[in-house]
C-alpha cells in the first residue's frame, strides 16, 4: 500500500438503506422555529415596494421621485426611474452579500445557531433604525443592518433545515424556509395595505414592524438545538448522537451517525473550505451554488415582488388598488408553496423546476404582449385587461412558488459535503444577493428602457434555466445529505469531473492508491 492515501476520505460507501427513524414532532417543531428566519427575508421583499410607493415616504426622502410621479405627461414606464430610490431597496442586498461570506466561518466554527442569532439581532437593529429614520443616511444605515441580518439568516437557516430533516422528507422540511419567506411577503403586503392609509407616517410602522420576525428569529435561535452534523464537526460526538437519536425517535441511528462522523473527519482535515470548494471534485456543487441562485433571481420574481405596487401603479392602478394587487400576489405565492411541500419528495426536484419554468415563460410572454399592444405612454389599461394582467402575473407567481422559489434554496443547501457545506451555502447566498442587488438596482431603469420588453427579457432567462435543469441537474429526491457525492459520480456529465473513488489524487488525475488497485 505504498503511496496510498491514509487521510480521511469522507463517506466511502452508501448506507442509505440502513437509515432508521421516523418523523418526530421534535424535528418538525425545530424546523418550524428555524424556518422563521426566512420570514425576515420575505418581510423585507414585501415591505420595500409598498413603502417606496407611499407619498409620505417619497416626500421625506425622495422628493424628486414624488414630483416625477405627479407628472402625467411622462412615460408610464419611467415614473419611478431613480437610482437613489433603487438604492434604498438594493443596498440591503449588497450588505447581505458581504455578511453571508463573513457568516461562513462563524457557522462552521460556532454552529448554525450562532449565525441564526447574529442574523436576528442585526435585523432587529436595522428595523429600529429604519422606523426612526430622520434622514437618508440613517435610512440607508438601517438597510445595511437589515442586510447583515439577511446574510446571516439565509446562510444558516437552509443548512440547519437540511441537516435536521430525515432524507425522505428533507425537501418538504427545507421548504419551510421558503414558506416562511412567502408568509413574510404576504404579511408585509397586508401591512402596507393598512399603513398606506395612515398618512404621512404609515411607512414608519411598515418598516418598524420588521422587528417582530427579527425578535422571533433571535429567540428561536436561543431555544433551538444544534444540528448533529455541526456538533460532530466541532468534536462533540456524544452530544451529536444524542440529538440525532432525539430527532429520529430511535436509538438505532448507527448508519446515519457513521456517515456524519466520516464526513466530519474529512471536514476537520480541510482548513480552507473556500479553497477546497474550487477543486475539480467539487465542480458540480460549485456550478449549482452559482447558477441556481442566479437563475432564481433572473426569473424576475424579486422585481415583481419588490416593485409590485410601483409596477401596478405604472400600469394605471390607483395607489390603494396597486397595494391590493401586490397583496394578492403575495397571498398566491404563499399558497403555492404548499404545492411544492406536498409534491417535492414524491415527484422530485427536476419535475417541479421544469414544469414551473415552462409555465413562467408562457406567463411572461402573455404579459409582454398585453402591455405591448394595449399599454403605452399616457395610457391606462382597461379594467378587463388590468384584471387579465394581474391574473397572469398570479399564475406566474404560482409557478415560481412551487418551483424556483423553494428549490432555489433547497437544492444548494443539500448537495454539498460537510467539509464545504458552510462555504457552499455562503456562495449560494452571496450570489443570490449579488443578483438581487443588480436586478433591484437596475429594474426601474430597465423598465423605463425596455418597457414591456422587460417581461421578454426575463422569459428568455427562464428558458435558459429550464434547459440547464433538464441537462445538468440530477434528481436529489431521497438521497441522504452525506451520500450526495454518489449522485454526481453516476450523472452522465458530472461523472467526468467527480472522482470514482474518494482516494483520487486530484494533482495528477489518477488514483493515488494505485498499488491497492493493482493488487486486486
Provide tags for this entry:
single chain, 520 residues, mainly alpha, two-stranded antiparallel sheet, globular, disordered N terminus
Any overview of this molecule?
The longest helix has 33 residues, at 418-450. It is built from 26 helices and two strands. It is mainly alpha-helical. The protein has a two-stranded antiparallel ribbon with strand order 1-2.
Topology:
Blueprint (H helix, E strand, L loop, with lengths): L24 H11 L1 H15 L3 H7 L1 H7 L13 H28 L1 H20 L4 H29 L5 H5 L1 H20 L6 H7 L2 H13 L4 H6 L3 H12 L5 H16 L3 H4 L6 H16 L2 H6 L1 H7 L4 H29 L1 H26 L8 H20 L1 H12 L2 H33 L2 H20 L12 H6 L13 E2 L4 E2 L2 H5 L2
Antiparallel strand pairs: 1-2
Helix pairs in contact: 1-7, 1-9, 2-7, 2-9, 2-11, 3-4, 5-6, 5-7, 5-23, 6-7, 6-10, 6-11, 7-22, 7-23, 9-10, 9-19, 16-22, 16-23, 18-19, 19-20, 19-21, 20-21, 20-24, 21-22, 22-23
Keywords: Membrane, Sugar transport, Symport, Transmembrane, Transmembrane helix, Transport
Main location: membrane
Subcellular location: Membrane
Amino acid at each position: 500500500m505504498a503511496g496510498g492515501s491514509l487521510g480521511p476520505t469522507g463517506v466511502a460507501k452508501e448506507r442509505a438503506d440502513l437509515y432508521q427513524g421516523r418523523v418526530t414532532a421534535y424535528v418538525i417543531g425545530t424546523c418550524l422555529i428555524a424556518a422563521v428566519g426566512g420570514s425576515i427575508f420575505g418581510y423585507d421583499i414585501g415591505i420595500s415596494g409598498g413603502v417606496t410607493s407611499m407619498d409620505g415616504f417619497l416626500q421625506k426622502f425622495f422628493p424628486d421621485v414624488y414630483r416625477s410621479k405627479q407628472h402625467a405627461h411622462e412615460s408610464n414606464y419611467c415614473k419611478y426611474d431613480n437610482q437613489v430610490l433603487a438604492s434604498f431597496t438594493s443596498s440591503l442586498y449588497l450588505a447581505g452579500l458581504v455578511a453571508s461570506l463573513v457568516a461562513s466561518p462563524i457557522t462552521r466554527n460556532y454552529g448554525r445557531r450562532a449565525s441564526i442569532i447574529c442574523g436576528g439581532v442585526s435585523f432587529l437593529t436595522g428595523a429600529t433604525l429604519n422606523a426612526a429614520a430622520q434622514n437618508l443616511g440613517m435610512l440607508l444605515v438601517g438597510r445595511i443592518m437589515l442586510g447583515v441580518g439577511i446574510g446571516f439568516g439565509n446562510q444558516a437557516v437552509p443548512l440547519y433545515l437540511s441537516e435536521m430533516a430525515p432524507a425522505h422528507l428533507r425537501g418538504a422540511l427545507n421548504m419551510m424556509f421558503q414558506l416562511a419567506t412567502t408568509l413574510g411577503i404576504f404579511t408585509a403586503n397586508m401591512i402596507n395595505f393598512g399603513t398606506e392609509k395612515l398618512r404621512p407616517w404609515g411607512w414608519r410602522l411598515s418598516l418598524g414592524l420588521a422587528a417582530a420576525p427579527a425578535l422571533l428569529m433571535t429567540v428561536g435561535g436561543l431555544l433551538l438545538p444544534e444540528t448533529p452534523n455541526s456538533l460532530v464537526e466541532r468534536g462533540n460526538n456524544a452530544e451529536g448522537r444524542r440529538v440525532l437519536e432525539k430527532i429520529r425517535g430511535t436509538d438505532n441511528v448507527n448508519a446515519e451517525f457513521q456517515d456524519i462522523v466520516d464526513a466530519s473527519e474529512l471536514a476537520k482535515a480541510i482548513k480552507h473550505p473556500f479553497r477546497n470548494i474550487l477543486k475539480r471534485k467539487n465542480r458540480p456543487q460549485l456550478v449549482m451554488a452559482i447558477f441556481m441562485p442566479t437563475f432564481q433571481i433572473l426569473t424576475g420574481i424579486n422585481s415583481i415582488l419588490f416593485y409590485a405596487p410601483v409596477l401596478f401603479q405604472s400600469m394605471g392602478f390607483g395607489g390603494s388598488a396597486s397595494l391590493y394587487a401586490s397583496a394578492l400576489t403575495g397571498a398566491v405565492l404563499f399558497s403555492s408553496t404548499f404545492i411544492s411541500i406536498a409534491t417535492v419528495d414524491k415527484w422530485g426536484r427536476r419535475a417541479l423546476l421544469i414544469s414551473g419554468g415552462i409555465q413562467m415563460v408562457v406567463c411572461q410572454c402573455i404579459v409582454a404582449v398585453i402591455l405591448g399592444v394595449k399599454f403605452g405612454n399616457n395610457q391606462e389599461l382597461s379594467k378587463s385587461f388590468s384584471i387579465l394582467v394581474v391574473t397572469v402575473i398570479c399564475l406566474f407567481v404560482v409557478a415560481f412558488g412551487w418551483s424556483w422559489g423553494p428549490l432555489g434554496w433547497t437544492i444548494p443547501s443539500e448537495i454539498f459535503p460537510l467539509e464545504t457545506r458552510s462555504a457552499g451555502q455562503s456562495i449560494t447566498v452571496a450570489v443570490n444577493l449579488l443578483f438581487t442587488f443588480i436586478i433591484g438596482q437596475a429594474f426601474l431603469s430597465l423598465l423605463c428602457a425596455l418597457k414591456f420588453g422587460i417581461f421578454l427579457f426575463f422569459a428568455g432567462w427562464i428558458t435558459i434555466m429550464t434547459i440547464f435543469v433538464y441537462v445538468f441537474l440530477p434528481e436529489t429526491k431521497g438521497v441522504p445529505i452525506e451520500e450526495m457525492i454518489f449522485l454526481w459520480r453516476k450523472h452522465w456529465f458530472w461523472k467526468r469531473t467527480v472522482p470514482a473513488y474518494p482516494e483520487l489524487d486530484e494533482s495528477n488525475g489518477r488514483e493515488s492508491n494505485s498499488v491497492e488497485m493493482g493488487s486486486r
